[in-house]
Amino acid sequence: MAVNLSRRGVRVALLEAGPELPDETSQAVFGTATASGRPLPGLHCGRTRALGGTTNRWAGQIVAIDPHVIGQRPWIDSDGWPIAHHDIAPYHDAALSLLEMENTLADSAVWKALNVAPPAATGDVVPFLTRWTPTPRFAKLFKPDIVRCANLRVCLNAQATALRSADGRFVEGVVVASGTGATSLVGGRHVVLACGTVETVRLLFQPLADGRPAPWSGNAWLGRGFMDHVDCTAATVTPLDAPRFADLFEAAVIGGHKYLPKLRLGPSAQERMRLLDVAGHFVHHSRYDDEIEAIKALAGGALHLGPGRRRRMALLRSAVSGFRFVPPMAMRYLRRSRIKAFHDQGITLRLTAEQTPQANSRITARDDRDGHGMRTIDVDWRVAPTQIETLARFSELVRDYLAAQRLATTTIDTRLAARNPDFLAMIDDANHHMGGARMANAPSDGVVDSNLKVFGTHNLHVAGAAVYPTSGFQNPTFTAIALGLRLADSLAAGIRP
């Protein structure tokens, strides 16, 4: 948003709470947060306090949210979003252009370029491709704008601690604490909170700068409806035709862009079976995974992003010891444009499922304070027991699909196949924090309106996945970018450059 607006001639101050690159000191701030519900490792390791935020660790996967996810789905008690899919769709192309991905190919063109017949589609199991941005780190992608654009001012180590408002409706500015402890006020005609789901909700819970409770902090939905994607390893997979299986499901690189084949549950099947949105992909396991991943990190220039020098050196040693895998990987890439996957320790089916929205899955503010005097937070992540049916049924559909295509045999986890509630102990989060400031048509149903403005205010907005009423299975980043560009259009229309 900041880059988009500044390119239009709008003056923007971007306040980054952390330094230019992640470091242990900056990351330690997240240690004050607690998880009182299901285990939520991403609350600490899945967030990044540095320029570009979590894009410092984001792999760059791009998936557009589907129309049915935004619409009403009575079988999951969802009234849908207060906007339609056609309100977001025009910003998908703009988002791809911003990420320098306007030349990515349609699915059919990818398979044609690979000279491979695409996987068959059924009404229940639908093959698709995800796309990956070549430069996922926004601080690197937008560095020319950060350095040269006179309209964009980036302030590092600028922790927003409170909002200043005389009447509770117009926000005059943001109180910022520097690394030295000094505070200042950054003012503007509009204030946009885009600091990640958890930190956005935490800031909305804080008292105003003069100590009065913020009027929006009394909204019954603030912090509620917290979601993450429900991930799990559902089954083991044994290819019947290994070369064909690899051709259909190994990642490909064409024109500098990565494409990953996946399978998803069709929208009509979701409605018929009353299931959630869910997708799956195949994970290849090898005793040499550490070496292979280190080589990829080295090739992608990501070794410097380790949490410390010791970790970076360990990655470098792993990369050096794994250079024996470079020839077969290079050969596979040069001949077939594919990223070779080693699976001497098997293949598993990994699922990513939408979470049923629940009001009691929530972020709350505690009374204790951190080093900046801000209230700390607790996250009570709750997953409904009915979640297991989506995971189990889709696993069975994938098993039958692979068998019908004579591609592989599939052995589903016995607890999952039996719908044993104990299997829910095996699920984990995806570091995809969503909800807590959901959008709605009225304050009785959410925190922000259809234009992402906090109810009851004139100029306070929320950008990011915190506004999602439902999630789908899709990685939330791309939709968050599209929504941000939509908000930027709205703001730019009322601001004279």
Describe this protein's structure.
- This protein has about 500 residues and is α+β, with helices and mostly antiparallel strands.
- Helix content is about 30%, strand content about 20%.
- It has helices spanning about 1-5, 25, 40-45, 65-70, 85-90, 90-100, 105-115, 140, 145-150, 195-205, 240-250, 265-275, 290-300, 310-320, 325-335, 385-405, 415, 475-495, and strands at about 10-15, 35, 60, 125-130, 150-155, 160-165, 175, 185, 190-195, 230-240, 250-255, 255-265, 280-285, 345-355, 360-370, 375-380, 410, 460.
- The strands form five sheets. Strands 3, 4, 10, 11, 12, 13, 14 and 17 form an eight-stranded antiparallel beta sheet that branches.
- A hairpin with an 8-residue loop joins strand 6 (about 160-165) and strand 7.
- The longest helix has 18 residues, at about 385-405.
- The two termini are about 15 Å apart.
- Residues about 305 have low confidence and may be disordered.
Please render the helix and strand layout as text.
Elements (H helix, E strand, L loop, with lengths): L1 H6 L4 E4 L8 H4 L6 E2 L6 H4 L15 E2 L4 H4 L14 H4 L1 H9 L8 H8 L10 E8 L5 H4 L1 H6 L3 E4 L3 E6 L8 E5 L5 E5 L3 E3 L3 H9 L24 E10 L2 H8 L2 E3 L2 E9 L1 H7 L4 E7 L4 H11 L9 H13 L4 H11 L10 E7 L8 E8 L5 E6 L6 H18 L3 E5 L1 H4 L42 E3 L13 H18 L4
Parallel strand pairs: 1-5, 2-16, 9-18
Antiparallel strand pairs: 3-4, 4-12, 6-7, 7-8, 10-14, 10-17, 11-12, 12-13, 13-14, 15-16
